[in-house]
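Running this now, will post back.
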Amino acid sequence: MTRVVLAFLCCAGVGYAQGGRPEGGKPQVELKQFAHSGVCPKTCKPCQSAMAKALEYLAKQTQADGLEAGNGGGTVVTAIAGLAFMANGSTPTGGPYAKQVEACAQAILRKVGNKSKGKTASGMEFEGFGNWDLGYAAIFLAEYYAQKPSPAVAEKIKFVIEKICEQREPNGGWGHAPNFAYKDLMVVTTACLTGLGMLKQLKFPVPDDVIARGVKYIEDSSSGGTVGYSPREGQKGWGHAGRASGAAYAMTKCGVQSGFYNMVVKFVKGGLKTIPQDHASPTLHYLWGGLFSYLLGPESWAEYKKLYLDYWLSAQKEDGSFKCPTEADVKAMLGMDPDEMVGPNYMTSVYALVFALPLDKTNLGRAKPKETKTATGGGGLGLGGRKEPTNGWLGARVSPFSDSLVVKSLVKESPAAKAGLVEGDAILEVNRKPAKDAKSVREALNAIKPGTKVSLLVLHAGEKKVIEVVLGEKPKTEGEASAEGEEI
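Update: finished.
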């Protein structure tokens, strides 16, 4: 006990220096099995029902001052809930929960502008601005500003950036707050760095040296690909895939590509099943694990959903809220239930945000704020080198997703539909060449004669399979297909 509990529950849970969930520990949930579609939550009745109930619950909990979160952390939960509303398609100006998005925004804008005595979820008080609040405020405001820019919000964002930079520790990391007993903590550093990275992507002035030193703090806290609580003895390198996911997500948003980053990515890919072992209250790590799994690509996302989607659905209550149970031995050791302490608004917001990522309504599932396209010219995928287009056509609309193309819709009776391609499949390769962007694939297909057979490597329901498609000729009038994505 004396060596185990060294951090404090700050909305997300209790931090461990050593120990934690026993290997193989299982969440205390009576697991149910649900019949899912390949594109959850789209066209998936269990997910659509669960999401609707969760959002309705969160909407009722949203007040003028945001959402409550147990003993503290209201700004954090308000930020996550606001992001969840946006991830499900509402914006500050439209959608069924536009009112709630705006209420979350105004609450956060007020809270990060008033210097006062703060309090962590465990009841620990501190003076000044909490870095936990500032980090999540930055993440929310980045997404909010991208949808509704204004000079007033821009000024508040600059203030948040200034405070985050000002309040970092000498080693480059961030703690709960300045002059707080627990100086630096990886989960707070993850939030602050992610917020700074997202705002820098929106062209706000973020000092490069602050990001560089923050990334160095992550590396100093690691051992190989693992990421620990801090660089301190007994904490360096301790952890599982949840904490590493958060660190890697932050580095991705900061535009970091390095050998160390690749080590963390490899560690996360190999350890998604360890997320429940990462924290006394694992909800935070389900959040970052989900965000980074989705950003990594369809294979990691399919594994994450297979591991945790039914678990979350099994934990939903009749009122639409979620409870993320903590194991009995952890509760006994701590003398409290950390998830009860932070409250159902937090867990429900995490679910509603993470499992809405496939709807692709925010920048959270993208490495960059806007999707980029790289034209490689006709024949760049090895599909033929003829300069004159001959209209080889699949009849699918796709969107780029981590070095693949995700099928958003199919023209009825198109070659792709006839070959068995379905909405939600991720096209990884075309004729054994990577399918990274729609334009180069389209130009290459256009250079192939209709009637030619091409081979697609796709990820379908979490499994790789090869589908052979006989290309058709693009019709002058396309048939039924949504306007979402790009046509190939």
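The CA atoms of residues 13 and 281 lie 4 Å apart. More later if anyone needs it.
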